[in-house]
Structure formats: C-alpha cells, structure tokens
Amino acid sequence: MAPLLLILLAGLLLRLAIAALLPPGYDEAYYLFYGHHLALSYFDHPAAVGLWAWLGLHLPFSSFGLRLPGVLSYTLASALLALASQRQLGRSAGLWTAALTGLSPLLLACGGVLLLPDAPLLLLLSAVIYALAVDAPWALLGLLLGGLTLCKYQALPLLGCLLIWVLINPQRRRRLFGAEGIKALAAWALVSSPLWIWNAQNGWISFLFHGARTSEALGFNPSGPPLFLLTQLLALFPSIGILLLIGVGPHRPDGASPFRLLLRWLALPQLLLFLLLAARMQVLVSWLVPAWWLLLPLAGERLATAQARGARWLPAWSWFSIGLPPVLCLLAASHVRFGFANPLLPASIDSSRELIPPEKLRAALKNQPKIWNALTKTPLIVGRRYYEPGFLALALGSDTKAEYTSFSEDPRGFLFWQPPDGFMGRSGVLFGMRNPEQNEENKAWLKRLGPLEPLGLVRLERGGTVAQELEFFGFAPLAQPWDRRPSANQP
C-alpha cells in the first residue's frame, strides 16, 4: 500500500501546485454560479458540478478553493481505479495505473485541477469500475450509476454500453431480470431522478440544447478524425497516448479477460463516436476524457508486463513520460500566470492572455475609484458574455451585494437564475472584455439597456505587456422586465 500512497501523494502535490498557479478559466468562472444557485440540474449539465462548486465556495483562497473539491476527488478516483486494476490485473498494473493518472496533462487538468463536470464524473466512473471489479452488490452498483448520470451527459453512452455488456452474457442477463436487476434499476432511477425531474419541468431543454449542438453539422470533413486524434495524443502526452491505444489491442486469454473486455467495451464506442463526430462538428478536447480514463488499467498492465520482462524500452519511456509531463505542466501553468513566454508566443495564438487572476483584477479595479465605487454599490452587474460575470465575482468577493447576470443572446444558466421581476427598476454596471468583433454581435440587446455611461477601461498586464482590457459602463434602471424565454436553439 505504501508505494500506491506515495504515487497518489505525488500526483496530489503536482495538481495542488498547478491549481494554485492557474487563473480561473472561462468554464470555471461560469460554473462558479452553479454553486450559488444549487438546483436539481442545469441548462448545460447535470447537478454534480454544481455540488463541487458549492463545496468550493465554502472554502477559502478564491479560485484555488473553488478547485479544491476536484483536486481531492481526483485523488480518490485515481485510488479506486488503481485498486480495481490491482484486483483484476495485478499489483504492478495497479501502481502503473495510479502513476498514469498523475502524469497525463489532459486527464489531470480536466478531472483533477479545473472545476469541470469531469471531476465528479471520473470519481463516480472509478467507483463503478471498482464495484464491478470486486463484484459488489448490484443495488450498490445502481446507486453509483445514478450518481454517474448526474455528472455529465457523456455518462449516458456509458450506461448504454454497460447495459449491452450485461445483455450479451446469459449469466449477467439473468441477474438483470431478477431481483438484483430490479434493485439496481430502482436505485439508479432514484439517484438520477433530479436530472429527469428538472428537464421534465423545463421542456427537456438541456437535451434539446445538446442535441442542437450535434445537429449543427456542415458536410463531412475526412481530415477531422485524424486531426482530432492527433490533438488528443498531444494533450494526453504522446508516449502516454500511444500506450493507451496499444492497451486496446489483444491480450493473452486468462482470468482477467472479462475485465479487459469490459473496459474496452465501455471505452471504444466513445472513441469511435467522437472521432466520427469530429468529421462533422467541433469536438471539444475534454469529451474523450472518460474513454481514456477507462483505458488506463490496460495501459498500466502493458507497463507492468514490460517491467516484469525487463523490456529495454521501458527505462527510456519512464524517464520521458514520468520526468517531462510534470515539468511541462508547471511551466505551462507558470506562463499562463506570469507570461514569461510572451516573446515566443504571438498574441493571436496565445488565448491564455485572456485568463484573469482574481487578485490582479481586484487590484486594478481598486486603482480606479469610479469603477470600484460603482461595482460595490450597484444592485446589478451584467457581463456581455455568460462566462464573464464569474471573473468579476471572484475579484470582488464580498465587497459587493450585487446580483450577476448576462443579457446576451447566449446567457446559459443565467436564463434560469433571473428573478421573476426580470430586474425591472434596477440600474447596474455593464462590463465586458474589449473585443470589437464580439461586441458587435451584442448590439441588438445592448440597445435595450438604453444610454450607457462610460465608467472607464481597466488594462491588465502580464509579462510586461497588456494582456486584457475590460470596459465598464453604467446603465439606468430598467423600465420593464428583461423578458427572456428559455430556448434550446442558443449558440
């Protein structure tokens, strides 16, 4: 147990360092408000990420505290996956599995550093795999699958694959249609019920929204799948990504063959699905995180076998794959924070310039008394885009009692967090990142605010250059409610 604990501790320390360095990202700034508005579900995602955000809001250290539940839950997820691997594939395979969870930049960032739905998803997915590895009671498995359903909509394909895996085996099929299966289905339905209740109350808008995203396809681009796969391998770290693909390959039949088949059965359909979608639409880099996570035990077993056989390539692979990713992750996080690589990266390709450390924004706002006084006294703060209000909320903290919202054409959750009076009679402060192209898109709804009073411009520097500019305006009390009706056809 001692080696496993040391591996998990090393991974935890690395993620704590990265979490402390990285400014909050766009999604994190938005999910912050999930924690302020706990609900059965949300427009974009099921409820779990809201619970993680709520826990983070009750911890100190601003954005670092917001990330802490995910940082800690990733350690538990790594432990459960490693123990499942150890149980089925051997002790060395379990240790290598734990090491891989702490080394791949894509996995540790999405599941163990940033406040994203992947953090609870990986925890519940690991718990499900462990339950299957130890043949836990199916009632417990149903509870875990219900929790998995509340994490992210990518859990639904996993549930479908698991159901087919049960149905194709006569023994498992009999269990499904017996008392065990009834208990499991009842437990799943009970735990996952918040998702179905919320969507039923809101016209199934969340499903319609995500369905509309996949239907906005334009033709078929044959270069999409290979380019997306290449991007995934780079984000995983090439030597780790290639090893994960090798792990999918055949293995000598033995007592662990059913476990290997289960992992492949759950992971491969996701890989194929999103590779095909990459030919027709933009597929986000994080969407394959659950699939790669499921392949980690198979890759860990390959490394354990190579270690037992004294493979000549393993030392070189280890030096490269264990030594380099942590260094690169820390360097990348440090650049995002301090901008030391600005001379090497043109502003047109370095989107990290737009990320704002809360303490730096707070200091810049205090240096402009007109803006600071307006923000601390106004009843309403409005961002031009749905992800902007969170940056200001982290910077202002408890210094303002204002409500935050976005009046844009794509307000996401703010659509549902708007009070019944539609903010009628409330004046406020409008702000946004200075981007002429995007601001032009907002002209239609900006006109509804009436005349705007310029309050000032805040420039934020990073690495000796201006990284971001924020514009602030005051607006008069709204003469009528801001009428918005939920629509699944938002961008």
Architecture blueprint of SSEs:
Layout: H1 2-21, H2 26-36, H3 48-57, H4 63-89, H5 91-101, H6 105-112, H7 118-133, H8 138-149, H9 155-167, H10 170-176, H11 179-201, H12 205-215, H13 224-236, H14 238-247, H15 257-277, H16 289-309, H17 313-338, H18 358-366, H19 369-377, E1 380-383, H20 388-396, E2 403-406, H21 414-417, E3 428-433, H22 436-441, H23 443-446, E4 452-462, E5 465-475
Parallel strand pairs: 1-2, 1-3
Antiparallel strand pairs: 3-5, 4-5
Helix pairs in contact: 1-4, 1-5, 1-17, 2-3, 2-20, 3-4, 4-5, 4-7, 4-16, 5-16, 7-8, 7-16, 8-11, 9-15, 13-14, 13-15, 14-16, 15-16, 18-20
Structure, briefly:
With 491 residues, the chain is of the alpha/beta class.
Indicate the percent of residues in helices: 55-70%
**Major β-sheet profile:** 5 strands, mixed
Count of individual beta strands? 5
Oligomer: single chain
Written account of the structure:
This protein is of the alpha/beta class and 491 residues long. The chain has two domains: 2-335, no CATH class; 353-475, no CATH class. The chain is 61% helix and 7% strand. The chain has 23 helices and five strands. A five-stranded mixed beta sheet has the order 2-1-3-5-4. A hairpin with a 2-residue loop joins strand 4 (452-462) and strand 5 (465-475). Helix 1 (2-21) runs parallel beside helix 17.
